[in-house]
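Dock 2-acetamido-2-deoxy-beta-D-glucopyranose; give full complex structure.
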Amino acid sequence: MVERSMFTMLGLPTLLLLLGAVNGAIPPRAHWKPTWPTYKVPVIVPQLTINLDKPQFDAEAKLEVVSPCGPSCHKRSPLPTYEEVKDYLSYETLYSNGSRTETEVGIYIITGSNSGSQSRSRTKRQIYGYDTRFNIFGKDFLLNYPFSTSVKLSTGCTGTLVAEKHVLTAAHCIHDGKSYVKGAKKLRVGFLRPKLKDGSKGANVSSSPEPERMKFQWIRVKRTHVPKGWLKGNANDIGMDYDYALLELKKPHKRKFMKIGVSPSARQLPGGRIHFSGYDNDRPGNLVYRFCDIRDETYDLLYQQCDAQPGASGSGVYVRMWKRQHHKWERKIIGIFSGHQWVDTNGSPQDFNVAVRITPLKYAQICYWITGNYQECREG
Ligand SMILES: *[C@@H]1O[C@H](CO)[C@@H](O)[C@H](O)[C@H]1NC(C)=O
Ligand SMILES: *[C@@H]1O[C@H](CO)[C@@H](O)[C@H](O)[C@H]1NC(C)=O
């Protein structure tokens, strides 16, 4: 499968380069257009898969993750070793028949690659932004890109379509770090569709002035991948970094999806701003869209203060930037909205909403889960 001679084991110096790569990528300063940087992505491939006992499914789905570790705490934590990273990126797969496997991964880089400089400057943003949410009404919006990529999980969270059959969401929607949540056994993904009265079969639908009635149509999940970094950490300082999961549907959803991409640093994003849409608990049945400024970032997390309620967790955080190779604007998912955190900063509690960044390593892992082919995952 993998030709070893092509690869080198990822040693610590390379790992440091890789970890620096997100902030070290050459910023597209010279261009007025915010442009997607290109990243060298490592190769992550399965090495060994073993069967595990059937899980219990006894955890309650908690839609909020509480972590006492804020930005400064995360920045103080030491860089993981190669063995640790390899362990965090190993994963569990849950099948719809209840069986479960654990897969160890190997991490490689193509020899001769050069990952740029190591600067890890951390800009503190002084400008605080909007904190506004918009309900998205009307078929014209709800059924169209990008809002149509937001789906609801039967456990209460939000997910985003990232491939023909794949949905990206937060790990805590599936697993509480110790056990699978009850609803994970028969996990389904809901797609908003217009509610048609008998006879009206979709004729002349766009002219109604009122918000149209929509309902969810559900598709079963065939398998679910959760990184071991989440299973081990359970929302402690490390676990938070791995709060993501990928779901594979039993059949294709046939909608347009949004690709994933490596998260640029906040200062490279247009206006330092991110966007996401989710099914917030306080507005049942509504898809809620918001955008907001990034307040702080670590290698693995983005901190922002935009308004969000628990049901929004698992939403894909996206930005729209110029893709030079394709000569067009592209939206990509660069993170997964994890949830709300109270963080003690200098004695005064401050609340943040946290999103998990898609780093080059996570990109390689999620992309492999989607495609099963590392060669399709070389460019983030
Ligand atoms: C469950 O499904 C997986 C994947 O289709 C299969 O490999 C495994 O053997 C099945 N397990 C049982 C107990 O049927
Ligand atoms: C659709 O609705 C509009 C406005 O109510 C009306 O003018 C038009 O004739 C309708 N078209 C059809 C095909 O029913």
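Observed: The radius of gyration is 20 Å.
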